[in-house]
Amino acid sequence: LGGSISLAVEQMSNATIIDDNVMNQCLNEISRALLQSDVNFKLVRDMETNIKKIVNLHDLSGGHNKRRIIQKAIFTELCRILDPGKPSFTPKKGQASVIMFVGLQGSGKTTTCAKYAYYHQMKGWKPALVSSRAGAFDQLKQIATKAKIPFYGSYTESDLVRVAFEGVKRFKKENCDLIIVDTGGHHNQEASLFEEMHQVAEATKPDLVIFVMDSSIGQAAFDQVQAFKQSVSVGAVIITKMDGHAKGVGALSAVAATKSPVIFIGIGEDKDEFEVFDVKPFVGRRLLGMDYLSGFVDKIHEVVPMDQQPEVLQKPLQRNLTLRIVYEQFQKLLKRGSIGQVFSMLPRSCVELVPEGLEKDIEAAIESYVTMMGAMTNEELDNSDPKLITESQIERIALASGRPVTEVMGMLQHYKRLTEVKSKMKGEMSSLSQNVNAQ
Ligand code: GDP
Ligand code: MG
């Protein structure tokens, strides 16, 4: 879906003249992509109408301006559709919280419990897993053992309410700050399932009940969340299998319509294939394919004269571009608050496409790179061939920096592309900024 939407926007951006025809064609393609993802028909129709209302082409002059206004309107409308508009309970590190996971069988509860635990463990929490189902204990035990997360459960005890109660009690005593309770689910929304959930909730007194849902159900997500909400006080939703399923965005928008906050999405079977759900980056990165970091550097080059650009962006590279050089440059950029300074140099029209948050987002991206690079050994930093960094090294860097393996791999890929551009530009005056720009 992200592909077809960003393609439609890109094609529109490439058109020499932006007229009603070009805009309608772009909107048609986006609408078709959303409908194919099972987004509610009325939502899609409203989105089209709203965009057309915001963008009155005849009142606008200049091609650049029109493009930006249309893109911004698309961004805003997609955010509006997917915004659950309500924050959820957030556990605090160091304070014991009980989090209970509910959902239908096969939705991904057990996997998601483990991902949620792992995600927090990487950030320095002390999570623990409790299985309140004899049948599912083995699966939880295996995942927990692999990720080195303490677990509790029973193969034989039939009183699952008691098992849940004992598990929570034990981990509170052991000063765990995130006690995650996995529950069983049946194939459909039976009364006995809801009764069971209710009893486990009574026994464990969860601070937050998370409803786990498979994204492949699309619009039907609306009814499913409502049904569960009637029986337990669902405080947040996690949508799984956003990787392989065409109906993912349909499920997201349906959940948003119930005003239930979506807090994470699952994007694969592995323990780190898990993302915080935040509407703006989701729309920007996944649906519109914007790369904030390169886009930002791009804009600096577009509008700020070379000699006025921050020193760190124009420093010529005389040596091989090692990870250490990128690391040092990024550290400087963060230290001096240069990002804010650069932003203040940009004309408003350049930053308005992604309204608030852009600056923070870029800063966060650079910060995360710096954290990961900080976890690398001297040898790794001075290495100018990223291919030589092995899988086990990547895992170590991820563990030490508390970032997912996929993110470390992404950083190395970015760096690899930088070095490729660098070698192409051999001999010419090159700068880090031009390299970063080419990401
Ligand atoms: P439960 O019955 O609700 O506990 O579901 P499980 O945790 O056992 O998951 C059911 C299946 O879905 C397993 O094969 C998981 O590996 C798979 N699964 C869970 N989350 C995801 C996800 O985000 N993406 C993909 N592709 N598969 C997932
Ligand atoms: Mg399970």
UniProtKB/TrEMBL annotation:
The keyword Ribosomal protein does not apply. GO terms for molecular function: 7S RNA binding; endoplasmic reticulum signal peptide binding; GTP binding; GTPase activity. SUPFAM superfamilies: Domain of the SRP/SRP receptor G-proteins, P-loop containing nucleoside triphosphate hydrolases, Signal peptide-binding domain. It catalyses: GTP + H2O = GDP + phosphate + H(+). Its main location: cytoplasm. CDD domains: SRP54_G. Pfam families: SRP54, SRP54_N, SRP_SPB. It is found in: Cytoplasm; Endoplasmic reticulum. GO terms for biological process: SRP-dependent cotranslational protein targeting to membrane, translocation. One of its GO terms (cellular component) is endoplasmic reticulum. InterPro entries: P-loop_NTPase, Signal_recog_part_SRP54_M_sf, Signal_recog_particl_SRP54_hlx, Signal_recog_particle_SRP54_M, SRP/SRP_N, SRP54, SRP54_euk, SRP54_GTPase_dom. Residues 1-82 form the Signal recognition particle SRP54 helical bundle domain. Keywords: Cytoplasm, Endoplasmic reticulum, GTP-binding, Hydrolase, Nucleotide-binding, Ribonucleoprotein, RNA-binding, Signal recognition particle. Residues 96-289 form the SRP54-type proteins GTP-binding domain. It comes from the Eukaryota. The NG domain, also named G domain, is a special guanosine triphosphatase (GTPase) domain, which binds GTP and forms a guanosine 5'-triphosphate (GTP)-dependent complex with a homologous NG domain in the SRP receptor subunit SRPRA. The two NG domains undergo cooperative rearrangements upon their assembly, which culminate in the reciprocal activation of the GTPase activity of one another. SRP receptor compaction upon binding with cargo-loaded SRP and GTPase rearrangement drive SRP-mediated cotranslational protein translocation into the ER. The M domain binds the 7SL RNA in presence of SRP19 and binds the signal sequence of presecretory proteins. Component of a signal recognition particle (SRP) complex that consists of a 7SL RNA molecule of 300 nucleotides and six protein subunits: SRP72, SRP68, SRP54, SRP19, SRP14 and SRP9. Component of the signal recognition particle (SRP) complex, a ribonucleoprotein complex that mediates the cotranslational targeting of secretory and membrane proteins to the endoplasmic reticulum (ER). As part of the SRP complex, associates with the SRP receptor (SR) component SRPRA to target secretory proteins to the endoplasmic reticulum membrane. Binds to the signal sequence of presecretory proteins when they emerge from the ribosomes. Displays basal GTPase activity, and stimulates reciprocal GTPase activation of the SR subunit SRPRA. Belongs to the GTP-binding SRP family. SRP54 subfamily. This is Signal recognition particle 54 kDa protein.
